[in-house]
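Troubleshooting entry. The earlier prediction with calcium ion gave an output that would not parse, so I re-checked the input for stray whitespace and re-submitted. Clean input:
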Amino acid sequence: MGLDRHDPDASLAAIILAAGKGTRMRSDLPKVLHPIGARPMLHHVMGLAAGLAGGPRIVVVGAGAEAVSEAARAFDPAAALVVQEPQLGTGHAVQGAFEALGDFAGHVVVLYADTPLIPAGTLAELYAAARQHGAGVAVLGFEEPLPHAYGRLIVSRDEAGRQAGGERGAVLPLERIVEAKDCSPEEAAVELSNSGVMLFEAGFARAALPKLTNDNAKGEYYLTDLVALARAEGLGAVAIKTDADDVRGVNSRADLAVVEGIFQARRRSAALEGGVTLEDPQSTYFSADTDLGRDVTVGPHVYFGPGVRVGDGVRVRPFCHLEGVTVGRGSTVGPFARLRPGADLGEGVHVGNFVEIKNAVLGAGAKVNHLTYIGDADVGPRTNIGAGTITCNYDGFLKHRTMIGPDVFVGSNTALVAPVALGEGANIGAGSTITKDVPAGALSVTRAEQKTLAGWAKRFRARKQAEKDAKKKG
Ligand code: UD1
Ligand code: CA
């Protein structure tokens, strides 16, 4: 995903703002922990920061500080946490973060934890442009149709008095940023908007941040005022234009759905480019870490939850749900299979319809084709599990393991009551309930002996029909 294209640069620090309340989400979960591609937005942004910023990385927390801090520590133990309480604006948040930065002397990038789609390459371009133009401040801008509530990027005018425009990637001379609520009518007419992503020299910001005031429409300390402060000191400021989709922020559940949609579209394109066939791309759901090999074919309506790795040449047929699993090359899964965490399928494994596999290792060439539950188990290579087999792994208190060797044949409708082991090449008769270990090469069957009464059914039917006829007449 581009992260690996850039080495983290020790002279770049990152500040991630994650203190806001996210009131419009109407949620008990802090906004920045809501997932995109089954990964918290905060982690998307921390991943972006860790991929580029080899200097200090600071996360500013506030609302839901405990949960957000825990999530931040889990993702990047090297990141420092700063609590902002109360939250007096983006400038105030960065002031707090600077106390944790110490005397760091390079560049600093500010990212919002609710803006999870920024490509690493775009951020790298912003960093490169800031250095190339010797700018004190550089911001990522985008065009948004009016009216809108974003801060306006006011760029220098050319001799004809036109505002500089430009395509994606254009570097524009920036004069100041005006928040929507503080705009004059003329400023309000500007479509070029502030994404919130800002990069600046640490030394300049250290001196300028204490000069921010809250003398504005919102009564907040605006980080955006750094631009005018940089210009006042004769430092350059630039805006780099990017696509609106790269900098979509999340304020509501509707925004979350839009951002998820963009994320999914990007993952589908990346999969297709990587040599995966998606038979119905719109209905394939990807997680942020989904890893599909070459020549994988995915049928309609497949859900890849977190932690899925699928080897080359695998066929995932329609309506499968996978999470926390590895599928070896050349395997076939589904239709209608559920692979739960800890399912580890070797090469050329067949898992068929209405099969659930959890915390189980299936050796190469094993087959579990119909209506089966395999949980907490080892299944040897080439073993065939018949339809309707159940590993009874739970006794109501504890889970137990079922060990099945290589080349075993388990007949249909078998209950394997764990803990139990089936030796290499064993054969289990259909309909058995196996509670004791079966040695290698043995046959085990547990069923009542079959009785056959010749002609019984025919006589029975004749008698019953006669009874029925007599009743009708009478
Ligand atoms: C900000 C920008 C605006 C830009 C917009 C893009 C300022 C003054 N304005 O406005 O120019 O167009 O983002 O979305 O910067 N946060 C804190 N502590 C605070 C306040 C905010 O951590 O005290 C965090 C929030 O959690 C959020 C981010 O900073 O992640 C942005 O805050 P928000 O209040 O949404 O800023 P906007 O008013 O949208
Ligand atoms: Ca916002």
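This one parsed fine. Residues 147 and 188 are 8 Å apart (CA to CA).
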